[in-house]
Write a structure and sequence with these properties.
The complex is a heterodimer of chains A (118) and B (110).
Chain A lengths: L2 E5 L3 E2 L5 E8 L8 E7 L6 E7 L4 E3 L7 E6 L4 E6 L8 E9 L3 E5 L3 E5 L2
Chain B lengths: L8 E4 L5 E6 L11 E6 L6 E4 L13 E6 L2 E6 L8 E8 L5 E3 L3 E5 L1
Parallel strand pairs in B: 1-9
Antiparallel strand pairs in B: 2-6, 3-4, 3-7, 5-6, 7-8, 7-9
Classes of the chains: A mainly beta (118), B mainly beta (110).
């Protein structure tokens, strides 16, 4: 059974870089699939951030592309998200998920709340 | 790309059927048979309910069904149950490996 778990700081200062890691268990990332990040501001809808293939190919939401980097570490069976120059608008629950080609997300991690505040 | 358009809320009584629409463009919903639907209960992660427009993952009740006509996809829930009360989101492929979600619909079971 595939399980995903997000981890990282729950509080980030404005203008700094948000960094999160998703640890995958029950499946080897290097075996295939895309792996994605999705976020949800409090009380609002879902927003796709980007996805990465196990080989390292990345695809980003055009509205966030200039600030986003997604990477994969197959040796640790993890993939990571970095979002630079954050503002209060980046406050959200961040989810990681396995992506089946081309666009369905299953399963999801439980999500982690990241608050941007000084 | 813009978010897909969903009604903010729908409601129905137990046992009834409801349909949630998801309207996009020919560049996303209308251009590909890659629409998925997610159910989200408060404080929980979304759960995949439908993928590739009308396919149901193992374990999802057959009361849930999906369809598409032109630029609009639909999720139908038949035999409404109290546990179906949740937020529902559609999602579509938009070409060039881009994904777009709908704004979400709150389902209330009366």
């Amino acid at each position: 059974q595939v399980q995903l778990q997000e981890s990282g700081p729950g509080l980030v200062k404005p203008s700094e870089t948000l960094s999160l890691t998703c640890t995958v268990s029950g499946y080897s990332i290097s075996s295939g699939y895309y792996w994605g990040w999705i976020r949800q501001p409090p009380g609002k809808g879902l927003e796709w951030i980007g996805s990465i293939y196990h080989s390292g190919s990345t695809y980003y939401n055009p509205s966030l592309k200039s600030r986003v980097t997604i990477s994969v570490d197959t040796s640790k069976n993890q993939f990571s998200l970095k979002l630079s120059s954050v503002t209060a608008a980046d406050t959200a629950v961040y989810y990681c998920a396995r992506v089946s080609s081309p666009t369905w997300f299953d399963p999801w991690g439980q999500g982690t709340l990241v608050t941007v505040s000084s | 790309q813009s978010a897909l358009t969903q009604p903010a809320s729908v409601s129905g009584s137990p046992g009834q059927s409801i349909t949630i629409s998801c309207t996009g463009t020919s560049s996303d919903v209308g251009g590909y048979n890659y629409v998925s639907w997610y159910q989200q209960h408060p404080g929980k992660a979304p759960k995949l309910m439908i993928y590739d427009v009308s396919k149901r993952p193992s374990g999802v009740s057959n009361r849930f069904s999906g369809s598409k006509s032109g630029n609009t996809a639909s999720l139908t829930i038949s035999g409404l149950q109290a546990e179906d009360e949740a937020d529902y989101y559609c999602c579509s492929y938009a070409g060039s490996s881009i994904v777009v979600f709908g704004g979400g619909t709150k389902l209330t079971v009366l």
